[in-house]
Amino acid sequence: MFIICFYVLAIQDVNAACDYNRQVELMTEAANIRAAYEIGEFATGEPFLSNDTWVDGYEVRFKIDIYNVTPNIYIEVKNNYTNEVKTYYYEDTEDGTISWFRYPEEFDHLVGYTITVYSNDTSCQGDVLQIMPELVTPQFNYLSVEAPCTKLNQFGQLPYYCEPYITTDINMNYNEFLEISNAELDKLETPNESPEIEVSFWQKYGIYFLIGGALIVATCVIIIIVKRFKRRTVL
């Protein structure tokens, strides 16, 4: 009985130590956690022979990083495609950063990660501090290498269905893709003909009437002035 009572009291003491101020401190650390991915070429570590020279091998990968992990917290990462769950402590990081790759053989589907931040502090051990929004990493879009997309790219146009890496499914079948992309190409390949502007008779010849009218008026004025001058001279 004494042992049971002691165990209960010990649990109460631990929970009591996780006071409000400590929770705020831990929540602040958790709020600094950031997650992101990048698409790039990374060394494979497997050289290959090219033109009689051994060169480093590279391949496109998705690199996922979680930043700002501290000794007071640990991270649980769930792969929502495979349901695999991995736990990372500060000791598993490189200066507070957790990193892993997605490889080309996995590019045929989207993968989302649910990241949960827990307290690793002895006074609040295991408390959930933050569940981050799902981080969705892309899949390779095989339509992007089709001829219509290649041509659209040459025109400087890259609609979503032609982007090489996408994070949402393209809701169209292959025939729909051909129909939409070829229609877009037709617009770009058809030269823009300037529409003919309809010109009225007055717009076309009005200037000549104005000039002629001005000359007639000027002539009449000159004749009148000359006649008046002659009359004054006779008098």
Q: What value does the average pLDDT take? A: 83
- SS-derived structural category: alpha+beta
Per DSSP E runs of 2 or more residues, the count of β-strands stands at 12
The separation of the N and C termini measures 152 Å
Low-confidence stretches: 1-15
Indicate the radius of gyration in whole angstroms: 39 Å
**Proportion of beta-strand residues:** 25-35%
For the record, the count of structural domains works out to 3
Enumerate how many helices there are, as a single number.
5
The helix/strand order is: HHEEEEEEEEEEEHEHH
The share of residues in helices is: 25-40%
Outline? elongated
Give the biggest beta sheet. Answer: 5 strands, antiparallel
How would you characterize this protein structure?
The longest helix is centred in the last third of the chain and has 34 residues, at 201-234. The chain has 5 helices and 12 strands. Strands 5, 6, 8, 9 and 10 form a 5-stranded antiparallel sheet that branches. Helix content is 37%, strand content 26%. The protein is of the alpha+beta class and 235 residues long.
Concise structural overview:
The protein is α+β, with helices and mostly antiparallel strands and 235 residues long.
Features:
single chain, 235 residues, alpha+beta, 3 domains, five-stranded antiparallel sheet, three-stranded antiparallel sheet, 5 helices, 12 strands, 37% helix, 26% strand, disordered N terminus
SSE diagram, text form:
Layout: H1 2-17, H2 20-31, E1 34-43, E2 48-50, E3 53-55, E4 58-67, E5 73-79, E6 85-88, E7 98-102, E8 111-119, E9 128-131, E10 135-137, E11 139-140, H3 147-154, E12 165-166, H4 174-189, H5 201-234
Helix pairs in contact: 3-4
